[in-house]
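Hi R.,

Here's the chain you asked about this morning:
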Amino acid sequence: MGTVKNGIKIGLTIMGTTIGAGFASGREIWEFFTSYGSQSIIGIVVTMGLFLISSIVILWLSWRNQAENYYDILVILMGEHVAKIFDWFVFLYLFSGSVVMFAGSGAVFKQWGYPMSVGVFVIAIGLWLVLARGVSGLMQFNSVLMPIKMLMMIWIGYQFLSTHHDTVDHFVRGHLKVWPSAVTYVAFNVISLLGVLSTIGKRIRSKAEIMIGGIVGIGGLGLIAMIMNLSLLRISNVDHFEIPLFSLIPEQRSILMGLVSVILWLAIYSTALSNVHGLIYRVPKRVPFSTGQISFLFLSLIAPLSFIGFSNLIQILYPIYGVLNLYVLFLLILYPFQRV
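And here is the predicted structure, written out as tokens:
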């Protein structure tokens, strides 16, 4: 039972790392899958297969090599010289992504009628309380949060599907092949997975936990993605919605709308948690500070930057990240076929 329990915790951590605000809002599901029409189902299957391979390889490498952080895995995948270069890009990716999530939290609180500074302060305090407890804090948080988010998203999709049976005829990318989008989506998320999963190898006791974690995490992720995709396939002009998930909720259900808003903020929180966690564990162990102190330092650096606006920086960095992420993804997928 201990093996199963730990495997489930690993699976929930995979889900918590991947289900960010873009996924929970339905925006990513629409952009990468639903917009391709009926073939979106194939796209999700391909995506989950690649996620499963990537997650299991990262977990196995982390466990076998007792890795401390993502850099240890990069060295194994690409050698020390290239890893040193990638190390900076991964660090920037996690750091800039954290800044964007802090700004997103501020924007959500502003929509709720509070100053942006309140949203930034709340997410900073909430993150520190979990991060100060290290890897165990991250895994315990996901063990509590993910089942709640998962059940809510599945329930919303199920309620919608039970009353809407006909799919829409036309989709904006229906004439294109979906598989490049599926690969791109996995690459888009692989660095965040690397940042988190590389730190939990010392908590894995057997290969069975790795397999259970991969199956639970990707199985749950695939189930939510498929239900949301099937729901969005039944909505006309869904691309007009900034948050497609709201299109699945009847207008008179204001309480449910508010609850979904909370879920979206929690998704922002979980993404920031994963990113900052990856940053903290990249700090060399020889640094004479506790995890709580290092967390406080990073959060103190990130919070003020969220007020500046990173749109120009993101426009420059994200295309570079896209190429680099694809490279890391291909290394992970090909690794099992190499002689070790």
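One quick note: The chain is about 75% helix and 0% strand.

Cheers,
M.
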